[in-house]
Amino acid sequence: MGDARIGLIGLGTMGAALASNIAENGFDIAVFNRTTQVTRDFAAEAGALAPRITPTESLEAFVDAIAKPRVIVLMVPAGPPVDDQIAALRPLLDGDDLIVDCGNANFHDTNRRMADATGPFLGVGVSGGEEGARHGPSIMAGGDPACWARVEDIMEAIAAKHGDEPCAGLLGPGGAGHFVKMVHNGIEYADMQMISEVYGILRDGLGMGPDDVAGVFDRWNGGPLESYLIEITGKVAAAKDVATGEPLLSVIVDAAGQKGTGRWTAIESQHLLTPIPAIEAAVVARNVSARLEERAEGEAMFGPAPQAFDVDLELLERTLIAGKVLCYAQGFVMISATCEAHGWDVDLPTVARLWREGCIIRSAMLDDMATALGDHPGENLMRTPHFADILKAHHDALRRVVSLAALHGHPAPALSSGLAYFDAMRTARGTANMIQAQRDFFGLHGFVHVDGRTDVHGPWAED
Ligand code: 6PG
Question: What CATH class is the domain 434-462?
């Protein structure tokens, strides 16, 4: 019987980084990987951390190496591999052994696994990529508080810190942690898409080379846009291809894939009838980007779309400020809506606080978002006074840039969707009266009258 405080299965990039982080923070850890050589390589490269790491070569040896009641972290690919791993593990465990799924699971799977679990189970979203997993991720947990209490010290120790505050916490029951991580990724998609749309305007509108683009993003990262994604955009633009010395961006195919978390967010929002158009537009944009051949044929048929045009850099910066606020606002509204649907009580300010460091969407704005959401519970972030002022100050820039982009053939789906959402959400009398009437005309679906009556029909019902 071993005495490792915790065990971890799955030594892929993220698993290996997380295991090293746990060991580095003083916790003895047993590790196992389906391919034994991966375990051996990990142990061989552990260096000073080696004394804290017990590499094991069978599930039985792995389970035996962990102190009871056991805590076992799964870092295996999301989907069926998680179910397979749980099925292989449970017969070897005691009833009070805790399994913690730290992969990018779909929260519906986590809900199901928790409901079916024959022992304690936690679903934990971990954000920050390899670097975050190794040196401090943002950790979003879901499940039973008693289960969380068993790993809280480890999770807080390995998490990123904002000042002294660890970016780790239990957000709600069931799949709440994986759900919040999914929405995090939805916001990530939208923010990345808006940035890439502005990059397109710098490149094809203003004709800037990558080094100049890098300079612009570096400068913006020193202002209100300060965030991890703006920071890495500058670094990416400045990077050179090692083989040719050419700008790295010039040798990368413009087609973006996805593992699916952004798509899950968009699908879920449709089920919930919660509008998150900027996030949906970003998912669609990735799918459009993948249609390389069709796009090339389209260019040959209709002529190339993006034309050069002049625009102030300050206008582009203000565009991204407004866009960023709208991305997060949509994500937070989606979290509220889902919590209501599932009876979860996820605290939005806590989510904002957990996202301040470690995760991919960390941003200087998140501190103010936590305050705004705390001061105005239940309010859409875009209507809280601080962020409403930001939108009032900058939506003119977003509007101008979206117009210029459209006039000059630059596709800007996320920016335009963000703007349309902003405008729709400040239009007291929109145009859905026409939709109601049309539905009634062709299907006698009835409409709601402005005087409050429901199921009213138009004159065509008499025909
Ligand atoms: C994170 C990232 C991480 C990962 C996604 C990317 O928070 O650390 O979001 O989860 O980068 O897998 O997702 P796509 O492959 O869907 O872009």
Answer: mainly alpha
Fold of 6-174: Rossmann fold (3.40.50)
> Coil, helix or strand for 127?
strand
Q: Which residues fall within 8 angstroms of residue 149, CB to CB, at 6 or more apart?
A: none
Of 188, 197, 231, 268, which residue is the catalytic one? 188
Calculate helix-pair angle for 365-375, 385-407, nearest 10 degrees: 130
Q: How far is the CA of 404 from the centre of ligand 1 (A)?
A: 31
Q: CA 80, 119, 108, 324 torsion: positive or negative?
A: negative
Q: How confident is the model over 389-423, as pLDDT tens digits?
A: 999 999 999 999 999 999 999 999 999 999 999 99
Backbone conformation region of residue 368, classed left if phi is above 0, alpha if psi is from -120 to 50, else beta: alpha
Q: Which residues pair with 161 in a beta bridge?
A: 166
Ligand 1: residue of 124, 131, 259, 355 to mutate (most ligand atoms within 8 A of CB) is 259
For the chain, the average pLDDT equals: 97
191 lines ligand 1 (CB under 6 A): no
At residue 363, the 3 state secondary structure works out as strand
Strand order in 6-9's β-sheet? 53-55, 29-32, 6-9, 71-74, 98-101, 121-127, 138-143, 168-172
Residue nearest to atom 1 of ligand 1 (CA): 127
User: What are the domain boundaries of the chain?
Assistant: 6-174, 181-424, 434-462
User: What is the token pair recorded at 37?
Assistant: 């050589």
Tell me, what's the pLDDT at 340?
A: 85
Arch. (CATH architecture) of 181-424: Orthogonal Bundle (1.10)
